[in-house]
Amino acid sequence: MIARVIVDVPSRATDRPFDYGIPDAMSGWVEVGSRVGVPFAGRVLQGFVIAIVPFAEVDSKKLKPIAELLDHLPPLSPDLVELAQWISDKYCCALTTALQAMIPSALKGKADSVVTLAEEAEASDGRLIEVADEPWLHYVRQSGGEVRLALLQERFPGAAASIKAAIQRGTLEERVSIRDRLAVRKVLTVFPPENPAEAEASIAAASSRAAKQQEVARYMLEHREPIPLAALAQALSMTTGTIRGAEEKGWILIRETVQQRDPYAGRGFRRTEPLSLTEGQQAVYDELAEALDNESSRVFLLHGVTGSGKTEVYLQAIERCLKDERQAIVLVPEIALTPQMVERFKGRFGDSVAVMHSRLSSGERYDEWRKIREGRAQVTVGARSAVFAPFKRIGLIIIDEEHESSYKQEESPKYHARDVAVWRARQHNALVVLGSATPSLESFVAASASRGQEADGNASPSVKRGATLLPMPDRVGGRPLPKVHLIDMRDELKGGNRSMFSRQLHEALLLRLERGEQSVLLLNRRGYSTFVMCRSCGYTAQCPHCDISLTYHQKSKALRCHYCGHAEQAPEVCPSCESEHIRFFGTGTQRVEEELAKLFPGIRVIRMDVDTTTEKGSHEKWLTQFGNREADVLLGTQMVAKGLDFPYVTLVGVIAADTSLHLPDFRAAEKTFQLLTQVAGRAGRHELPGEVVVQTYNPEHYAIVSSQHHDYSSFVQEELKHRRFMAYPPFCRLILVTLSHEQLALLISEGEKLASTLRDLARAAGVKSSDDGDGSRFIDILGPVASPIPRMKDRYRFQCMIKYRGNVGASDLLKQAISLLSGTNGQPPVTMSVDVDPQVIL
Ligand code: ADP
Ligand code: ZN
Ligand code: ZN
């Protein structure tokens, strides 16, 4: 047999399979999805096997053999390899780029496996009977029960199938040594007392001077689960010394244990039972359950207002899916993947939940991934890339907050997790559930079109159909949506108020402080970095290599470029006019924090923005503190808007609603509406009623007015009118091509060539070049024009926008055009980067 291998060189010239022979020692081990080392242009390169074909199908007899097999069990399954092919076609990226995106980064090197004979298998011998006659088993026994897998593989070339089966069954345990896996760390762990009743009596009898130690002991009695000392100290905001005090009193135990790398281990998730569903939840659940039982691949859009109980529906649907021995993937925006969120899933499904997000170390990610691949996890909760979780039988893929733009990856492969999920679900006959209080227009139109609902009377052919809309318009327990007050900041100024707080927001904050309730303050700003400006002449510091302002870093007193990393000393006087009035403007949130301290002396504020959340675990730390009511105000950017659920939050203030409204992006209104609706949903989710104060300079804008009334449908009607008129998605689709090069003249001429080649190809394919507004197919090539950031890292940037509707093969046309412009080396003379369905147009 011959292996077809995609080598890991992401260039157009190498973006095709190369054939290699499979040496005898590897036969049976090399499969579709295996990672191998192959000789290529005088080197050994890493690659993936994407097909295995009989020798006869290949003409050349002078095949080179595969040099090495990098892991003994293939990291990818055939269905993932197929998915990668689709991603490569659809998003115009090299196949290797798509394949690499699917495996954890810890797996990039060579992994060395050791197999051990499972102890219980030795004892019971039940599982060993099946392999008792295998010569390799004797060999493992002779070697003391432990042997390198590579060695077994070499000595017993014909035994691949039975060894692999033994690993699958657990008769053999495979351990993979990846560098940081080997370092076993010991940690101090706190355990509950051995005799709880005795301890309880002793605690009750203790004097009030030991109040802190009592708190520790009570915590452990209540939670029961062992917890690392450091984690407990953090959870209770105490020193480890205080906790040791409780040990001295005999109320708890502290022991050294080997640290598990499960980042959520020892956290003591309290088990939760399914709630009895409300009428609205039940109706949705029934529909999902039926579709699950039918094993049909369908897409549902769960449009539920904030607090309608979407998560409980997810949980029960997952339970149904697990009963059928199928697995579930839950995607959550990175920023919303808080411990609170994880707890809801771990609380219901315990250790069968694997968690995947970018704040884990690469070793942790790898462990979670293996848990999935080895069948120890049935549910994964994770950010975007968890859509590639290597489950074998997927029944359900849930995408919470499906409208979030973070589901689109901004670097290659520039895939959208929602579209990948739909495709993957089709492979597995699984359901996709898209959940949101403010669905993206794309999803909403797709769902309404199929229902024949009047979102858009004559939905254009480009609008994807076939999603089913499941509405949940009411909050659980009939709790009202919070009242939203719009404050016109122009009136405030006219009335002589120059502060960033309106009188109403000021009073509302004061009231919360008096009542001991909490507030969330949102500063809606995208460019929340600090910059330098001269007050005398208006000079701003620019990067010498990029057309972008430099950012001021307080710690290092340096100016840095976010794009290329250029750094320089912050000037003392203006380099342009030598004035001393050069000022560093703090981040918006910093300034709000200062203002709060001035207006409300003693106020306790937690500020969450890019500056305060860079450290690992800081995001969680702030939220835990806020949840423990150690602060009155949680102040932040977008990150405070998502998914938080705190019972004492009764006020949400939005400092400036419209800073995102006028961005030159066709989704600006949609993003603003979504953000305001999400943040308003943080208030009054429990017994205490909530109130929202939104400050704006555009109180009559439909995005703001609709959010005031929690009125998604009138927002959508208005927004769809604009989109149709301007022919923007969902009435067409977009592909953004960015060209860059050091030489401006070459860049412009190549840009012109690309546009005209594309136009010629489209004409030859018989596709109309402009939109008649009748919903028929067309392809329109706009540009080239200078990019919004016209120079980056000393390279000029131009862009072409391809707008199209219907099945016009836009990606194919683009690929053809690029290859026509390419030289003999397979590359075009300027760099071309392709973004299909771009989410950020800026
Ligand atoms: P959403 O995700 O739709 O904003 P959540 O899932 O966070 O809403 O639910 C809001 C609140 O209602 C949560 O505190 C949740 O525990 C509670 N809840 C959900 N379903 C039920 C139910 N059937 N009975 C009682 N409480 C529920
Ligand atoms: Zn100046
Ligand atoms: Zn720069």
Tell me about this structure.
The protein has 26 helices and 33 strands. With 842 residues, the protein is α/β, with parallel strands linked by helices. It folds into 6 domains: 108 residues, PriA, 3(prime) DNA-binding domain (GIY-YIG endonuclease); 53 residues, no CATH class; 59 residues, no CATH class; 199 residues, P-loop containing nucleotide triphosphate hydrolases (Rossmann fold, 3-Layer(aba) Sandwich), CATH 3.40.50; 178 residues, Rossmann fold, CATH 3.40.50.300; 104 residues, Alpha-Beta Plaits (2-Layer Sandwich). The strands form 8 sheets. The chain has a 7-stranded parallel beta sheet with strand order 14-15-13-16-17-12-18. Strands 19-29-28-20-27-26 form a 6-stranded parallel beta sheet, with helices on both faces. The longest helix is centred in the C-terminal third of the chain and has 21 residues. The chain binds adenosine-5'-diphosphate and zinc ion (2 copies). Adenosine-5'-diphosphate binds next to helix 13. The site of one zinc ion has 7 residues, from loops.
